Amino acid sequence: MPGTRTEGSEAIWEARAKVSVAMARLERLFDAGTLEVIGAEVTHRAQGFGLEKKKIPGDGVVTASGLVDGRPVFAYAQDRTVLGGSLGQAHAQKIARLQDLAMRAGAPFVGINDSGGARIQEGVDALGGYGEIFRRNVAASGVIPQISVIAGPCAGGAVYSPALTDFVGMVDQSSFMFLTGPKVVKTVTFEEITVEDLGGARTHAERTGVSHFRWANDDEALAEVRRLLSYLPSNHREEPPYVVPADDVARMDVAFNAIVPEDPRKPYDVRRVVELVVDAGSFMEVQAGWAQNVVVGLGRLGGHVVGMVANQPLVNAGVLDIDASRKAARFIRTCNAFGIPLVSLVDVPGFLPGREQEYGGVIDHGAKLLYAYCEASVPKLSVILRKAYGGAYIVMSSQHVGGDVNLAWPRAEIAVMGASGAVEVLNRREIAAAEDPEARAAELRADYEERFLNPNIAAQRGYIDAVIEPCETRSRLYRHLRVMLNKREWSAPKRHGNGPL
Asked: Is pLDDT of 418 > 90?
């Protein structure tokens, strides 16, 4: 009879009776009552090492479809209570099939990783399984949103699937990612290091930038994944979700006027400007703990999803460096892949000088940011808030690299360099010959500032479309966004560009 326990089936019945952590996570992710498990009866076919006695339905991973805010999503969650959540051939086959279904349906794909890694007993079959998943990650890149949640161990080859996805988030104190663990590190390099320091959530959120988000617990992680999905289209052919704004798109906010100090050397938090530009409460920062001299994130402007890129004067005066360039470039490409318009808030004194930056390849990394802006075909709007010097002015969505609308505040400074540096280069001999070198240098700096450090010259040449009052920023950006939403851009047919990697 169906449902009757037979000899040898006790393990299967016990497994079915349990509500696994993996299943609970998926139920929290999906809208109530919409979860549909796929491949619940799949078991491995491996023999040896006692595996033939451990055939549990599901093989350590729950794969499912469901709805998130009424939209279809496909997701898997690894179950560490079953064979350590290790990945074998059948386990990988289930994930790969789910990836195929997500591509056919044009729906986002979410992976909740909690696994001991490759199933050693299955040898090359396990390794081949990872390869099948990686290939599909690449095929889906830029087609459907892919989000990885690291909720436990993720080590060895397993780390590459999350690294190939659009967004990665880690649960603090309970997850880690690394290619080789502390024991191997000690054996090879004689270095003592803890799991947390080597690959914990803080490490990847603040030092490496591998993790875009750092969450306190599973509940926060899954709630934030749902929020993230609310900004992303289901696939590259759909528009990002529009939400009727509760915030007045025409408001003239005087709070803008007080944020940027009159003294160009004083720092301020550009997040305050970002939060005034976007609809109230809509800004979701990405990679908040890493490369903090640039701020990136998703928000809404008049209900339309936008990607915000802003130099942060509060950290290293907002200079661009290796990590900031990488961070902004990756975010810009993600937005472009999914049709999300870009709004750039510019206050940048240049690229960070120094031997460490040059040896680290700042030329290549800075070129990534330049390439990303040039390549992006979505609407690109920018506002120069204060400084825009040298090559950093060009890179940050200027008209010269394809910016569609370029605005500036009245005190914006657009020049090759600041007044002190320019006078030192141009007037060194004159200053040295003067009776009072310091007084003459001050006069020359003031003259340079009056002649060059204002947006009027750029506006007269058509490089700045309008000089606006700070309080107008939100409303003017919205009006320009509204007319640019249907932007279409033609590019020459090619296999792909060969940008710096």
From this structure: no
